[in-house]
Amino acid sequence: MDALTQIPLGTQVLLGEKARLKRRVETVVTGVFEGWSYDEIIPPMFDYMDVFERGVGAELGKKVYRFLDREGNILALRPEFTSLVAKTVACRMGGSPKPIRLYYSGEVLRYEPPRGGQQREFSQIGLEHIAGSRLEADVEVLVIAIEVLTRLGLKDFQINLGHMEYFAGIVERLGFEPAVLQRLRELIDIKDKISLRAELRRLNLNDRRRDTMLALPDLTGGRTVLRSARDLASNERSVAALDHLEKITRTLSALGFARHLTLDLSEVRGLEYYTGMVFRIFVPGLGFEIGGGGRYDALFSNFGAGWHAVGFSFSLERLMQSARLKPGSQHSLRSFKLKPHNLRRQFAEILKERRSGRRVKLG
Amino acid sequence: MLTVAISKGRLFDPSLEMFSKLGYRVHSREAESRKLVIADRRGKLRFIYVKPADVPVYVEYGVADLGVVGLDVLLEASPDVHQPLDLKFGRCRIVVAAMKGSNRSNEQDGVSTLRVATKYPHLTAEYFTRRGVPVEIIVLSGSIELAPVLGLADCIVDLVQTGLTLRQNGLRVVHVIGESTARLIVNRASYQLRRERISELLEQIESLLAREKTA
């Protein structure tokens, strides 16, 4: 192997225009976060593996780059930020005024095949809103996500809004084995109604319950979805989830964002840590989601603090692919052809240009 | 216009036939040409013709909104896509097959390592390791039946339609892993961004399947 010419799969180098674009997009996004009075947190690049397992669970844990320190502790390169934010907030910010608003921007590493513009090392940019009121905080983070996309010149993005409690309420009393529940989730997620029907037949559900489960894959669309969802489930948890979504969508629609919203109660994939509202964001021309987030009220209790929280993150690389930024204002440029004699006089001239803010290029 | 990735090979004709029954016809002259991108006559769908194993790739990346592909390919590639419809055609079995009279494919043995030739390495590894059978997988891309005949492998994991090729080469089915039919798959982002157009197409296909079932 020639370490000078080969590269490890999943790494990349950004140069010139690409690097400039990345920083510009980052500046726009962090500008929005700052504009909503979020404070930046810059956590370490690595921490104990246990922190990430407490945070996002075993599933992502498999994709973590880990290594041992000299004492034999298992360390991990961060695969995401939320766990690190939760650790910091739970252990050090107990006395801070609530809610706590934090944002982050930086590289994360995951051992998975590069896909959709994301290498094994890629950049996440996002925020966490901790210990606030649920409804207000959920609306706030959605409005911020919309502002980010709008400021990046994106017009036709879609936010798919779901709620983990809707499905949780439906299956609560059915007492499925975890493995069966997992299989049902998978089938609903890939929208395979035929296999779902076969699986349900095996489970001997009554007609009403079976029809409810079978309707789940199609519960996505405009606000009428909420009405259909209400017809299907009358248990307390599901109804509370629908009431919550109703309030969010009513507010966002009144603000003129209705065309960006899709309700999606078929969202049952159940990323382990989400407990309430969840969303994924799609933009035309990108086959993968550009970002997403949701509420994870249980996550902080794993770190010893009982706060609820909501947050989202974008893939910075995917934002770069989709952003339609107007060309930045170019500072006027002055070129200098340097000659070897009397450098002092030439650089004095150059420094004068720099002090007035002009871009210089030395030949 | 929606883009549909169609598997070349055995699913090709039945796929186009299904779309043609729904009114999405392509000119026969074009269908027989070597063009890889063809729009239907009404300009509603654009078909791209690709190798079966590439269909999930095109769909996962959203270059194609939808795709028609065998379940065998999906099991092998595990793409992150919606899989709403079993199209029922292209029915095949995914089997373990070995030479007649050979006992080298006996899974129960479980001690000696089995050599398995296949073009489905993931599916094969999954199947045997789940049963605790040690395997060495030999990845081939065609004429899999040849491997046990020449002693390259103890058995094969392959797709079988009629079993004729197996019989002609002195092989028999040892175990049926599963059944494969053509599936319709949909890109996750397209499903949301072009929902109306896609749901309409899904409904058309579903009602066609229902009609054919009762017929």
Description:
The complex is a heterodimer of chains A (363) and B (215). Chain A has three domains: 9-155 and 283-328, BirA Bifunctional Protein, domain 2 (2-Layer Sandwich), CATH 3.30.930.10; 158-266, no CATH class; 334-362, no CATH class. The mean pLDDT of chain A is 90. Chain A has a nine-stranded mixed β-sheet with strand order 1-5-6-12-11-10-7-9-8, sandwiched between helices. Chain A has helices at 16-35, 49-56, 58-61, 82-92, 134-151, 164-172, 178-189, 193-203, 207-215, 224-232, 236-254, 316-322, 343-355; strands spanning 39-40, 46-48, 66-68, 74-77, 100-109, 121-130, 158-163, 220-221, 261-264, 277-282, 291-295, 309-315, 333-336, 359-362. The relative contact order of chain A is 0.15. Chain A starts with 15 loop residues before the first helix and ends with a strand. Chain A is elongated. In chain A, helix 5 (134-151) packs across helix 11 (236-254). In chain A, strand 3 and strand 4 (74-77) form a beta hairpin. Chain A has 363 residues and is of the alpha+beta class. Chain A has 13 helices and 14 strands. Chain A is 41% helix and 19% strand. Chain B is α/β, with parallel strands linked by helices. Chain B has two domains: 2-90 and 181-214, 3-Layer(aba) Sandwich (D-Maltodextrin-Binding Protein, domain 2), CATH 3.40.190; 92-179, Periplasmic binding protein-like II (D-Maltodextrin-Binding Protein, domain 2), CATH 3.40.190.10. Chain B is built from nine helices and eleven strands. Chain B has helices spanning 12-21, 28-32, 55-60, 71-77, 121-130, 146-149, 164-168, 188-193, 195-214; strands at residues 2-7, 37-39, 45-50, 66-70, 82-86, 92-99, 114-118, 135-139, 155-160, 171-180, 182-186. A six-stranded mixed β-sheet of chain B has the order 2-3-1-4-11-5. Chain B has a five-stranded mixed β-sheet with strand order 8-7-9-6-10. The mean pLDDT of chain B is 89. Chain A binds chain B through residues 115-116, 156, 158, 160, 189-195, 217, 220-221, 262, 264, 282-289, and chain B through 60-63, 81-86, 186-193, 195.
